[in-house]
Design goal:
By secondary structure, this protein is an alpha/beta fold. 31% of the residues lie in helices and 26% in strands. Helix 6 packs parallel to helix 7 and helix 10 packs parallel to helix 12. Bound molecules: uridine-diphosphate-N-acetylglucosamine.
Length: 429
Amino acid sequence: MDQIAIIGGTALHGNIPIGGAKNSAIKLMAAGLLTDEPLILTNMPRLRDTRFLGALLQRLGTRITESDGASGPQTVLHTPEITSAYASYDLVRQMRASFNVLGPLIARTGHAKVSLPGGCAIGARPVDLHLSSLHALGAHIDLHEGYVYAQAPRGLKGARIKFPFSSVGATEHAMLAAVLARGDTELIGAACEPELSDLAACLNAMGAKVSGAGTSTIRITGVTRLTGATHAVIPDRIEMGTYAVAAAMAGGVVRLTNTRPDLIDALLHKLDEAGVGVDRHPDGVTISRNGARLKAVEIETDPYPGFPTDLQAQFMALMTLADGESVVRETIFENRFMHVPELSRLGAEITVSGGEARVCGVDRLEGAQVMATDLRASVSLVIAALAARGETVVNRVYHLDRGFERLEEKLSACGAQVRRIKGSAEPDD
Ligand code: UD1
């Protein structure tokens, strides 16, 4: 298993280009199952998760061609026919979002057998809303031995689906299934995350009729078939937010490019409140900080446009060196404070009670061996290490590779002392 070693204390200076959003790319790839024509995705991130989903799609009948030409990283997905409508436990267990192939498979073939994803490191993460949406759209759903057996031999039909609370995955899943359903669908209480608008834009380019994405009511009029299209993946707001926090932590001046600052307004306001320089441009944002100590500020995670849960761990790392006490409230996922004991190994003072963490700013952190536990938690350790005295070694960095492309390269280009230590083969969890 690879490790990442970081020697802290160097300010960052330079540009960091932001890639396409992982969380969007994997749903867009699933959308490729809905048509027998090629779907061309540009601005594609090259990540462990996208590779993994690609391998699953190939088993279902998708031909995948990747290229990295002058127009940037591109993936062509072509599924002339679905050759298998089966996604095994081993495939879905390794990446939860693989479950989102279920809706497109039912929509295109009328049946599917897909493993339930099971729990994961950041909580139980059930899929009840996914299944109730597909049921409302007319799929007959049976659960046996950890598998979803779904049937809709005469196709799906439009429905009015009311979500009791915001779920990104369930809203996307319902949208992916409803575009080929007969008649009208209304999704009420839909998630408003930018990745949903991106998925709707791609589906519309393929000939779907989706309106209202980005608001809490999405309307879909089903069509009988979708075509190929070319679509550019939206910038990764979590990658952008992570490097913004990294620059704030290390100090210096870093310009984040190839992105949209409006996607992380909630974070930029908090950085500004803490005393970080935030300068917005049409294609990105410049983050700057001189040696002055940051102010402790409170955050609470919320659905978009609130503070993203996927930036909570990173912001907490920043607050470990702030002046005063910061309160971090996690409202989206249970058990999403797994980074706390690892940050404590670096000298942070944090106490957790239920969904609330109190971070008492300390004068300095010190490098140590730490363990990555999940994707966002692991990058918070890298951020803390950038400002820690001495060397930090982050173990189990395969978590990082799921969602951050060339992380050590991007940070090194700005002067950070970061290197990857190659290890033995990666585990498959
Ligand atoms: C997606 C993102 C993840 C992000 C999260 C919230 C992807 C691949 N992942 O995850 O990075 O942190 O949105 O912005 O896009 N829930 C249920 N039943 C369901 C579905 C969800 O109870 O059927 C609960 C979850 O346990 C959680 C809450 O709803 O407490 C929100 O989860 P959801 O928005 O669905 O997150 P994901 O789509 O899994």
